[in-house]
Amino acid sequence: MQCLLNCGIILGMATVTIPKSLAKKGDLVLIPLKEYESLLLGKKRIKTFAPTAVQKRALREARKGLVHGGYITLEQLRHGMGASRR
After folding, report:
1. Which of 8, 53, 61, 70 is the most exposed place for a label (fewest CB within 10 A)?
2. Angular region, 19: left φ>0, alpha ψ -120 to 50, beta rest
3. Residue whose C-alpha is closest to residue 20's, from 31, 6, 1, 30
4. How many Å apart are CA 8 and CA 19, to the nearest integer?
5. Rounded distance, CA 18 to CA 9, Å?
6. What is the pLDDT of residues 28-49, one digit of tens each?
């Protein structure tokens, strides 16, 4: 992070310098102008997940199991399946 405040970021032939005043304000996103314009105009659609009734029921059950400790870790699953670490 120190480098972002004190030096330019080199992207190919272009150098982008982020002023300290901007960097201190929080997260900063750099995207091409055309991409930004398409986001503003709503041309770019973001896919959302719309679960079916069956999926909703399965998610509710999974959340209940998680709250009550009804889960195992990935390592426990691997051990139970006899898989070795890579």
Report:
1. 53
2. beta
3. 6
4. 10
5. 8
6. 778 888 888 888 887 667 778 8
